[in-house]
């Protein structure tokens, strides 16, 4: 996150210094000769390549000085389970609260006197999974059909089903006016998201500032009070945000806006990549399409264009090939960092007997893209294989490194304390969306385009977008 700032302030490269910081068992320290810039530029240019190179030179654990902070990267996935268990000394929430408050424009929770608030928010995440997933999935299906019928099937393109599922419809059970401008503002804001996470003041990003103001005001309490059919999850968050009357209306609205962003920012590029890969491989598309038809026929739902498609949570669970094609798309496009801040000087246990010294306030990072692209774990890691995660008609879960089975082999949703609470909902809605696209439309990639590549500008921040636009052709199927 911090790297981007320094790309702006000092746009030139630096030499490498390898030092130890003098404390026992500390990992090798890699920094540029300009101490405050460190290795920011190289990381920003190609995070995955940079880390791969450092691993080759210095081994599985090394500290990189980036933007004045010491960041210890753990590159051996066999150490992940031990690291993830050491949650007491490695905090996630203070860091994310600070960063999110800057990006989304609310007062940091830490600065408000709200005892127990964070724990309550954490508990509210339960409303996104378990038994609560069924009503969310059902509601998502209905909203997708509403959006499809009103926009796509009448050949106009818009979106909003996730928004409607979480935040509800208008009082007359319809769609919100101003949805188009909400989407446009979200796109403008999101474009500047990497700069905001790098602490670039929003005052310098005029368009993002205006968009953020509009997005926040969309969620002001007097507007939300007119919405019906809100998910239990958002209702619970409203209760928590209203509790104690400490928060201003703007703060409450900014928290809701942050949740909207979290619920769509990674899901949309994942939908893109899954569709792109499926359309690029006829045998993958064929297998998934067949599976979708089988599941619908099995449950005796005849598909016709004027009847809503219903895919229950159980049916979605049975879509093995679609699920694994999505996982494979996530593997290829995910570049999130799992960031923890050391709460004290301590000895960080790795696997087996090994440990390294870490100092208070050092940042410890897992960078799962390195594991996702490791040829020892995934044969030909750059290649999309829709059935890579299938074995004997079931989901494959055994992947190996150095002959040992990995506990963590696919981590697009983070890990441990900061693991994405919306992950099950996300997978279900992506499946629902792709099913509808495949059922209603004949789709293909426009010919003559170069292969889509990942835009590295969001390295560390989630699912990467394609670096250029990709053109699809679509036509309503004759049914
Ligand atoms: C493909 C889709 C998604 C991906 C890849 C994804 C990925 C992630 C990751 C990597 C994190 C952890 C961030 C960190 O460690 O700093 C996270 C956190 C989070 N995600 Fe997701 N996410 C997705 C969809 C969703 C959806 C649909 C929702 C809500 C409905 C959601 C809600 C959240 C929330 C609330 C957090 C913060 C959790 C906390 O503060 O402890 N995500 N997500």
Automatic annotation (TrEMBL):
Domain of life, per lineage: Eukaryota
Cofactor dependence: heme
GO molecular function: heme binding; iron ion binding; oxidoreductase activity, acting on paired donors, with incorporation or reduction of molecular oxygen; steroid hydroxylase activity
Signal peptide segment: 1-25
Biological process, per Gene Ontology: bile acid biosynthetic process; cholesterol homeostasis
Keywords in alphabetical order: Endoplasmic reticulum, Heme, Iron, Lipid metabolism, Membrane, Metal-binding, Oxidoreductase, Signal, Steroid metabolism
Residues noted as binding substrate in the record, renumbered to the chain: 266
Pathway: Lipid metabolism; bile acid biosynthesis
This protein's record includes keyword Isomerase: no
Record Pfam families: p450
GO cellular component: endoplasmic reticulum membrane
Binding of heme, residues: 420
Compartments, record wording: Endoplasmic reticulum membrane
Similarity comment text for this entry: Belongs to the cytochrome P450 family.
Name of the featured protein: Uncharacterized protein
